[in-house]
Amino acid sequence: MRIPMEQEAASFVSRLLDELASFGADDQGGVTRLLYTPEWLQAQLFLAERMKSLGMDVRFDRVGNLFGRLEGSSKEAPVILTGSHIDTVRSGGQYDGAYGIAAGIAAVTYLKDTYGQPVNTLEIVSFCEEEGSRFPLTYWGSGHMTGVYDWQSGGIVFDTDGISLQEAMEAAGFGKPEQEASTLENIGAFVEIHIEQGPVLERQRKRIGIVEAIVGQRRYVVTVRGETNHAGTTPMSMRHDALVGASEMVLQLEADALVSGEPLVATVGRIECIPNTPNVVPGEVSFTVDIRHIDETVITKFCENAIAKFNDIAKWRGLELTIVPWLEAKPAPMSRELSDKLERISNDLSLPYRRIVSGAGHDAQMFTAHCPTAMLFVPSKSGISHSPQEYTSPEELAEGVSVLAALLYELAYEGILP
Amino acid sequence: MRIPMEQEAASFVSRLLDELASFGADDQGGVTRLLYTPEWLQAQLFLAERMKSLGMDVRFDRVGNLFGRLEGSSKEAPVILTGSHIDTVRSGGQYDGAYGIAAGIAAVTYLKDTYGQPVNTLEIVSFCEEEGSRFPLTYWGSGHMTGVYDWQSGGIVFDTDGISLQEAMEAAGFGKPEQEASTLENIGAFVEIHIEQGPVLERQRKRIGIVEAIVGQRRYVVTVRGETNHAGTTPMSMRHDALVGASEMVLQLEADALVSGEPLVATVGRIECIPNTPNVVPGEVSFTVDIRHIDETVITKFCENAIAKFNDIAKWRGLELTIVPWLEAKPAPMSRELSDKLERISNDLSLPYRRIVSGAGHDAQMFTAHCPTAMLFVPSKSGISHSPQEYTSPEELAEGVSVLAALLYELAYEGILP
Q: Phi and psi (nearest 5°) for B32?
């Protein structure tokens, strides 16, 4: 295939990402598009319009995933799917998720304009949700498609305003029985392109990361209950301070993660204190724990150890402890055949690349058990992501589009599926 | 003097507190009377009516402090003042503050009915504000009387609705130049009775606490700034996690407070994390620090040491640190002579007592530099206060009234001032 004009791809993708970033833009230069909010809906409708104007058939499914379809000449040939997610963390950047959709649109448009109709149908998906930022639940979009979540199961999770996912979905116009459910039927391959969200490619001066596996994750909500007391009149020795107990657990977790070594990471990202008043000894603190590694046995052992130590800390401090697991994702290895193709393509395009592990979860991990799945990274400046400072240069964005387009060409035009 | 009939005093005080608790009663059984709200005003007007009906002259001063006056036979003899505050925290109990006013009314009424006119004028004060619950400011009432606050200075503090103290004061009918300002002129002594708000008296089976000093306090807001990063892709060794740094500071503070020993207390009551998202390494955490002790040099040394250690922790973790002091109250020692009188009276009344330190701030601390000041405590069930569960039995309330009445008798009828 002819390589997409880099200049053209660069300006196309960068422009599209800039336009997308206006939906949910905040005054810190960040983007906040939480699931089923007005900003989120506007972004999806904008993408639908854009894909339509580029000649694709568009549809929303029952949970709000958006598909743009370039019909292949063969009705029987499996669909080649590419895409990522449209939701963001609070005040995130403009590349995470959005780039995978914009790159898909750029690549499919380029292929259509250059080579006409493919043999296999090409579809670009904008998944409704991946981040878990509004509701304590991730991969709602790809999880719907891969059969992990029942579309009616959103009534049991709530955002901080007490609105259930089900209510939010219905308020945004989805969750109706008559709307089409997505399935994996006839999906031949899934390819996701994403920014690295880490510093490795940049530090090693690579332009393409070929993901070998996505780490497994476990997340917990830990709640520590002590005794709310007057900060002036309760001697130190008579306190059951939930925040001091939680602090000890946070430090213990960090120490254990350092001892365990790379690639294990353990993070307490969220903490809430009750009553959270300067002159009151905290009575209750809850915090999240996020553990990741590529080896599930390592994760299991680490988590068991952490929970045991948390219990010890709670016990000797006279605190009650509740630990609720709320996310468990197995490590997800990518298709070796597709990764080999990506390696060859990167070589052909003279792009420095490396095989890499993804420490972040991605929609791609929902597909690895079901169909050949590939994932590729472009560099992130300073490794920053989930932040308004997230940045990848237009040239790097375009290089990713070139590699993606070349792979989609082999899959959908040459019909070479693993 | 004849000891007040306990039965009578018990029912008088309990009934008055029950009546008062109806102003600002919430459905959790708590009381919320924030400064200058309708509930607050109704409570003050109720007290004014009640004191009037008991034969006292009543007046409001310019900021809304309420005084009930039993004129003494000597015009030159200094006024003996007793009382406490009428405002509460949000959903507080019915004893904090209110008991000091109710006990004053009970004691003065008893003295008047039993002994007639005193030599020194007796006054009961219901201070408008002590808690700092509506506005970020404490002791507005006693601070006005003792010259700490200019009555026109309320324009610079605001409640959460953006209403200034000045506006709220005027809306409640106060803050007019023609209204009388209170001063310390001719105040001979101040006596405050209060619930302990701590567990010491109850645990040691004492009925009366004779306060030797109110602790000094310092409060800080500590802000720790690190680097917001992706929780999956940022190796442990490359993180600048603000929450882990803050957790180490919280633990360090606790350890130092335990080493310093009683009566020092150090509390982190409030913590805020940014962006507070499960899968993001926290970039910024701020927390409050509250330090209390009766010896100012101990407080100063402890705070200097804590700040130095916080800086060390921030430095080796590559975090930025900002520490802003926002409250400093000096320790307030009570009058030794009045405390000795209270000790003798407690002995005479066969009430088990102990000298005690007040870890909480009280209106009395505003007077200690100006006139002989005394403070006494009655037990708080389980040490609970600032809560609907706050409780002191009618018998304990009445015992406090007896001790208070006996002291007021010595000061106002026998004219024995230190």
A: -125, 105
Quickly count: other Cβ atoms within 10 Å of residue B177's Cβ. 8
Buried b (16+ CB within 10 A) or exposed e, B127-140: bbbbbbbbbebbbb
- pLDDT (0 to 100) of residue A7: 76
Q: Which domains does chain A have, with CATH numbers?
A: 6-215+331-412 (3.40.630.10), 216-329 (3.30.70.360)
Q: Are B63 and B128 in contact (CB under 8 A)?
A: yes
Residues 6+ apart with CB under 8 A from A360: A197, A198, A214, A215, A385, B230, B232, B233, B279
At residue B3, does pLDDT exceed 60?
no
- Provide φ and ψ at A84, rounded to 5°: -160, -155
Is B274 within 8 Å of B282 (Cβ atoms)?
yes
Q: Is A293 annotated as a binding residue?
A: no
* B8 part of contact set with chain A, CB < 8 Å: no
Distance CA B208, CA B78 (A): 27
Token pair listed for A202: 């940049």
- The CA distances from residue A19 to A44, A223, A281, B83, B231, in Å, are 12, 41, 48, 65, 28
A292 assigned binding-site residue = yes
Count of C-beta atoms within a 10 Å radius of residue B239: 21
| Peptide bond just before B275 cis, omega within 30 deg | yes
Q: Which of B266, B273, B278 sits opposite A290 (nearest CB)?
A: B278
Compute the radius of gyration of chain B from its Cα atoms: 23
pLDDT higher than threshold 70 for residue B141: yes
Q: Is the pLDDT of residue B9 over 80?
A: no
How big is chain B, counted in residues?
A: 418
pLDDT score for B28: 86
Distance (Å, whole) CA B380 – CA B401: 15
Grouping H, G, I as helix, E, B as strand and the rest as coil, residue B146 is coil
| Rounded Cα distance, A295 and B149, in Å | 64
What is this model's ipTM?
0.80
Distance from CA of B4 to the nearest CA of A (A): 30
- Tell me the HSE value of A21 on the side-chain side, using a 13 A CA sphere: 23
Cβ density class A168-201: b for 16+ within 10 Å, e for less: bbeebebbeeeeeebebeebbbbbbbbbbbbbbb
Give the least confident one: B6-10, B116-120, B262-266. Answer: B6-10
Q: Distance from A281 to chain B by nearest Cα, in Å?
A: 5
Q: What is the DSSP string of A253-277?
A: HHHHHHHH-TT-EEE---EEEES--
Distance, CA of A413 to chain centre:
29
Which residue, among B272, B302, B279, B273, has the nearest Cα to B290 in the 3D structure?
B302
| Average pLDDT score over residue span B236-242 | 93
- Cα B125 to Cα B59: distance, rounded to the nearest angstrom: 10
On the 0-12 / 13-18 / 19+ scale of CB atoms within 10 A, A215 is buried
**Cβ neighbours of B230 in A, within 8 Å:** 197-198, 359-360, 383, 385-386
- Tell me how crowded residue A161 is: count the other CB atoms within 10 A of its CB: 7
Cβ contact, residue pair B243, A290, below 8 Å:
no
Structure tokens at B247: 């957790």
Could you tell me if B68 and B61 are in contact, meaning their C-beta atoms sit under 8 angstroms apart? no
Q: Where are the beta strands (DSSP E) in A269-394?
A: 271-274, 280-281, 284-293, 320-329, 332-333, 353-358, 373-378
Tell me, yes or no, if A160 comes closer than 8 A to chain B by beta carbon: no
Return the number of other C-beta atoms located less than 10 Å from residue B115's C-beta.
13
Q: How far is CA A189 from the centre of its chain?
A: 19
Q: What is the DSSP string of B26-90?
A: -TTS-B---TTSHHHHHHHHHHHHHHHHTT-EEEE-TTS-EEEEE--S-SSSPEEEEEEE----T
